[in-house]
Amino acid sequence: MKKILFTSVVALVLIACGGSGTETKEQPKEEPKQETAAPSPSDNPDYEKGLALIAASDCLTCHKVDEKLTGPAYRDVANKYENTESNIKMLAEKIVKGGTGVWGEIPMTPHPAITPADAEQMVKYIFLLKNK
User: Fold this and answer.
1) Are residues 75 and 129 in contact, defined by beta-carbon separation less than 8 angstroms?
2) Residue 126: pLDDT above 70?
3) Contacts of 19 (CB under 8 A, 6+ apart)
4) Angle formed at CA 32 by CA 28 and CA 38, multiple of 5 degrees
């Protein structure tokens, strides 16, 4: 009786563990598909140029990339406006001449020492921060 019980337990263990005597053929592993990563904004030449201009100015006194200070976060500006030539020119003009009313009552001070071309480069950098 003990032999039958022992044999039954061993048989059940073998069946439960997959040792039923039939071998399974191992499936070949598929190569993982390599997805093309989206290009990083920092790969764009406008990124480095704009970042350098912003770092050399007083812009970071009132703005940060992801959080509002005195002025809006750069990412919020990028998400609000479509990246068009007319918006680049309009926002560059606001950098040079200043502005008020779009982001609240606190005015953006004018920056007449910044050339329109440099201001446009700054705006191009900001647009690269847009959430996709």
Assistant:
1) yes
2) yes
3) 13
4) 170
* CATH of residue 72: 1.10.760.10
Does residue 68 sit in helix, strand or coil? Answer: strand
> Based on the structure, what is the number of domains in the chain?
1
Q: Terminal CA-to-CA distance of the chain, rounded, Å?
A: 72
pLDDT band at residue 6 using 50, 70 and 90 as cut-offs: low
* Residues 121, 98: Cα–Cα separation, whole Å: 17
The answer to whether the Cα torsion of 73, 75, 78, 80 is positive or negative is: negative
Assigned domain for 49 exists: no
- Beta bridge mates, 108: 99
Query: How much is the pTM?
Result: 0.70
What is the spatial distance between Cα 110 and Cα 94, in angstroms, rounded to a whole number?
A: 7
What average pLDDT score do residues 52-71 get?
96
Q: Is 69 in contact with 62 (CB distance < 8 Å)?
A: yes
Residue 98: which domain range? Answer: 64-132
Torsion, Cα 11 17 23 27, to 10 degrees, reads 170
Site of tokens 């399974």:
24
pLDDT of 20 above 70:
no
